[in-house]
Amino acid sequence: MVTGFFDEYRQPKISILIQGHQGERRIEAVIDTGFDGSVCLPIPLAIQLGLELCGAQVIELADGSQSDELVFTGTVTFDDEIRTVEIALTESDDALIGTELLRAHKLEIGFLTQTIRLEDERGHHENSGENR
Questions:
Q1: What is the pTM of this model?
Q2: β-pair type (23-31, 96-97)
Q3: % the chain with pLDDT above 70
Q4: Of 50, 51, 67, 76, which sits most exposed with the smallest number of CB within 10 A?
């Protein structure tokens, strides 16, 4: 089970470890259920970590507009599981965790009680290092 926290702006966050070719960093990322990818990182952090470019994709933003975006790969450690994931980049200062990373988990957010719990619904962990 993973527990999260609320930041000073009342955003629900959890901590994950991101690794690239030039280093690793533990980050606090906003849980974004409207983002269907795995992770979205600020550009300066992605450069610092040395993430590997793997291609491009068209993304649709909340306002319905579309944009061509570069996609990178990196390794994420989340809930004691190591995975290689596609990582989108953002000009924002906030890192995001999307539903692709959360898909095997039950998410409970108590806004009144300021509690966040993520529970693995598979009941086990497989440290395969690959996407599921």
A1: 0.84
A2: parallel
A3: 93
A4: 67
Q: Are strands 5-6 and 96-97 parallel, antiparallel or unpaired?
A: unpaired
Q: And the tokens for 61?
A: 């933003």
Q: Which CATH architecture has domain 12-105?
A: Beta Barrel (2.40)
User: Residue 131 above 60 pLDDT?
Assistant: no
Please, what sign has the CA dihedral across residues 125, 105, 94, 86?
positive
Domain boundaries, the chain: 12-105
Beta carbons of 36 and 98 less than 8 angstroms apart: yes
- Over residues 26-83, the pLDDT tens digits come to 999 999 999 999 999 999 999 999 999 998 888 777 788 888 888 999 999 999 999 9
Q: Tokens 């068209």: give the residue.
A: 58
Quickly count: other Cβ atoms within 10 Å of residue 35's Cβ: 21
- Report the C-alpha gap between 62 and 52 in whole angstroms: 27
